[in-house]
Amino acid sequence: MPDARKLARIHRVRTLQLGLTRADEVRAHEKFASEEHLARRIQALADAVSPTPDTHASAAAMGAQAHFRDRLHQSSAAAQARLQSAEAFVNRAAEATRSAKRDQSAIEKLLDRARRAAAVAEMRALEETPPVSPLKAKRHDPC
């Protein structure tokens, strides 16, 4: 079994790794939220330029709207692809965080086991020490 100093060092490293993976997971969630917001915004823009029956616009204006709507749909498709990619990244980051937490928990269990073993060893050492005789009381003869 590794000694206590080595376990403490490993625990510090695992704690740092857990903090880093949690930070990565937070960044992944933020990126996912940003991509989701962008996809909703692009979809809202595409809906806003869709043709309406009461519009009496010229052919050139309708052509421009169609071109703009087509570009927005292309952007929407790209945003959906980025959103799926961000979601996959969130899933990977969450799994990495769970793995780091499992590693840290395992080290904490080893540390706890080492502490218990040291306490048991210390108790056994105390049990095996010879009994201490009472201090010799000074006897004074009657005067």
Proportion of β residues?
A: under 5%
Give me the Rg, rounded: 35 Å
> Strand count, sense and closure of the main sheet?
none
Structural class: mainly alpha
The run of helices and strands is HH
- Report the principal-axis shape: rod-shaped
List the total number of helices.
2
Helix content: over 70%
Distance between the termini: 65 Å
* Low-pLDDT runs: none
**Overall average residue pLDDT:** 86
Secondary structure: number of strands: 0
Walk me through what this model shows:
The model has no long low-confidence stretch (mean pLDDT 86). The protein has helices at 4-48, 59-128. The protein has two helices and no strands. With 143 residues, it is an all-alpha fold. Helix 1 runs antiparallel to helix 2 (59-128).
What secondary-structure arrangement, pairings included, does this model have?
Blueprint: H1 4-48, H2 59-128
List keywords for this structure.
143 residues; mainly alpha; 80% helix; rod-shaped
Q: TL;DR of this structure?
A:
It is built from two helices and no strands. The chain has helices at 4-48, 59-128.
